[in-house]
Design a protein that fits this description.
alpha+beta; about 850 residues; 33 helices; single chain; globular
Length: about 850
Amino acid sequence: MGTTGHGQRARAGLAPDDVTTTPETTSPTTTAAARSRLVGAARHAARAARRAPLTAAVVVVLWAIAVVSGSLPAGPAPDLLAAVGAGIGPAASGHWWFPLTSALWCSSLATYLGSTALLVALLQVAERRLGALRAGGLALLVQVVGSATGVAVAALIATTGGRWADQLAASTAVGASPAAFGAALPASAALPALWRRRLRVLGLVWLVMMALYSGLLADVLRLVTGLVGLAAGMVLLRGRRPARIGAPSRAEARVLVALVVAASAVGPLVAAIAQTRVGPLSVLRFVFASPPPDPVAVGQICLDPTAAHRCGELRARLRLSGIGPGLLSVVPVLLLLTAAEGLRRGRRAAWLAAIGLNTALTALGVVLAVLTAATPAAQRVVLGAGQHLHAWLALVLPALQPLAVVGLLLAARGLFRVRADPGAHRRWVLRIAAVLVAVSAVYVIGGLLVADQFDRAPGLLELLADLPVRFLPPGYLGEVGSGLTPVSRTAALLFGWTGVVFWAVVLVAALDTFARTAPPAGQADLDRVRRLLARTGGSSLAHLATWPGQSYWFLRSGSDGPGAPDLAAVAYRVVGGVAVSTGEPVGDPLHAERAVRGFVEHAQRQGWTPCLYSVGTAVAEVAVAMGWQVVQVAEETVLRVPELAFTGRRWQDVRTALNAAARSGITAEWTTYRSAPLAVTDQIRAISEEWVADKGMPEMGFTLGGLDELADDEVRLLLAVDGERTVHGVTSWLPVRRDGEQVGWTLDFMRRRSDGFRGVMEFLIASAALRAKDEGLEFLSLSGAPLARLDRGEPVRGVQRVLDLAGRALEPVYGFGSLLAFKAKFQPEYRPLHLAYPDPAALGSIATAIGRAYLPGLTARQAARLTRRLLG
């Protein structure tokens, strides 16, 4: 029903227009190649039909009925439409079959194509997840119930009166798209949490936007059928997947907020370009893109000598209805879309811009409502005749909709903390100011040079007075008007493109600023740490010191002055008055004790409670010598590679994974995140987001790396890729150095595709070990498993017992014990990692600080959910 946007496949291999192919020049080889392509396409279609027989059958039936009933290309004939379509009229006439028959026809060739694309894209989701029989029954159920309910809703709206009500009452709709949405949304209950959330959010945002901005009966039926399907899926498919969707990761939450902002921007364009726009938010089209006047009407007005001023205005609007003014009219939309892109990247400036733009649109909505209510002519154009519910909605919603977006942005403000590098905004302002001066000078000077090409020759002051209007979109935003009317192409070019050039530079510069990643706070200190790592090294977890969010304390030689060389550094985070170290000191182990003691003194001078987190036995002994308490918080596993040989019974799982990967055509590829192709990085992000979503809890950070930590050229990625370039799994490896030479790699990021090769992690780790052996390295560290440890037969008391209990309680949520058991497949060495703390009385605040370091964005609701999962 209606027309939905769908991409067109690029066509390749077309002969140039000036080349004529005749029977004499067509070779047998060319004919055979064409026949081979047709056979290949037919086989591909047959394979697709076998994989999704329900979808294929529905598409075939839809087109067969179209051909047999003569419904191509213009849709069913009026009599047939009245007999099979869905609407208030058919329902009142007793056509009880309309919920079923309305899905078997479409209104035009375009909607036949659009419905086919939706069926192929959405009905397949239900069929593959639920099976053909169950998906077919569900699609039939939601089509019948949804269409009947949708017509009932339309009838309810029709009782309120107004243009929207009249349109719904007089309409009859057909199309298969409600069934497609109605089947896909309930089937989302059987999808992994990430894709469940994405399908639901994208589908519902689109359906709601079309119903509010376009408002046709087909849009209402799609929305109601989708909601009915979503409810049916929650009820009927509860046992197939957990009903609760986990909290999105920070990156995914940013995407969802950006999506809402983008939808609020695009909606008015939908209303502006739709053939029939009657939805309650369709009035917003007047804010962005007021349509040009009718040339015939302008001619009639200009025949009246008393309407000379109005005639001039309308003629100017006609001259300003070209490409340039058309682009200028959508500047507010483009600004919001640019802000949405910045929001996706987490930029604070984009958040402020989106707040400002939507606040301005709220004010404009209020102004539009006041002017419309006070002007009878505007009431007739915007609202139609009479007082009705639609009129009130048309007056109120244009202000409430952007205000609701402002509320969402304020609620999500914690997601947008990425700031530009120092000076970026100042450079942006200077660039924009320079462009503003340049285009203003071109308009004023050019206007003076072509003054005779206006309806009257303007002077300098008149051009300067008119200049601000050149940067406002035409239509409602430009209703302040202009006393000048261009009468030539050159003058119209100055009139229509001055603002376009300026705003184009603004948008490009903003996108460029958002795309630039700000260096972390203390860039100079981070550079010192990197130099220290390159020159000396540190523990197997030393590279964690380079991750964002760190502060640093340095141990210098000699006088400890600003120019003294660094001997060691301690990376730490201050959370709630507790300074938590990120692993051991970086640098030569000979200086570790001095570094630890210096860091403790520094923290105490600042009034912080210091603690050493995730440190090895040597540093733990230093802490014990200071009178501190020590408890094991993780178990590191280390694989020695020089003598590595995957022989013997204990390596059976690893050998099986290597052999299975070889049979499946899966290879291990080394790369870096920055140098990997976009198709690969997109897959890595999708795999990671799905992994986070399926956990059902927030993603942990601190000593556990995520996507943000991959964008480091010193971090190597090892991917499992099949012959079709599908990424089945990804691991990241942090460098480990000693005395400036690399001696090993440390495993950090581990993600696998949920429906990919099952032994992918065993395959990737084994492949990394073999590569490390070839490179002459000493070891691979498989990193530490938090709150998990090897049972060494030692008595367990006090705090250690509490941590063991916490690890077992968190096992269903984060699986740390399972992770340690998995790493045992590689016959590693086990090295305990410790927490050292000065005072048992501070354990409560230390535990809280470490928890907040791992889960900095944990909300009260998420904390309550985590508590329930731990207790139940």
